[in-house]
Amino acid sequence: MSTAKPQPTSLNARTQSRVLEISFDDGRSFVLPFELMRVYSPSAEVRGHGVGQETLQTGKREVSLVGIEPVGNYAVRPLFSDEHSSGIFTWEYLYWLGENQSQLWQDYLQKLQAAGHPGETGRDAPMISAGRSCGSAH
């Protein structure tokens, strides 16, 4: 069994359908909605600095990408339309998102409902500032 991590062979941001298409050298391909990427951003703004410090992301249904920047040979940094740009998405993380997106999506919808957003209404609800910042100006 190979321990080599899959490397991307193509990466296409589809702004009209708001998805990132990514193919890997192991033959796997994924279509990742920008919304899923945004709510599971690996940034401290979303994840916090430890377990239990996560910030539930709301109102991201219509989020888009305004740019995407390479980070070395190992990652990209998406620039989202809501001005979020601090998440660095490694190839390994994008692969994991692709493999697990069905379960991640269900987990996200359950968290929104648990936070008092019936159905999928949390996908459109405005973000409520938690008053915390990680050095950001917002």
Automatic annotation (TrEMBL):
Keywords: Iron, Metal-binding. Transmembrane segments: none annotated. Residues 119-138 are annotated as: Disordered. Residues 13-95 form the Gamma-butyrobetaine hydroxylase-like N-terminal domain. Pfam families: GBBH-like_N (PF06155). InterPro entries: GBBH-like_N, GBBH-like_N_sf. The keyword Iron applies. The keyword Transport does not apply. This is DUF971 domain-containing protein. The lineage of its organism: Bacteria, Pseudomonadati, Pseudomonadota, Betaproteobacteria, Burkholderiales.
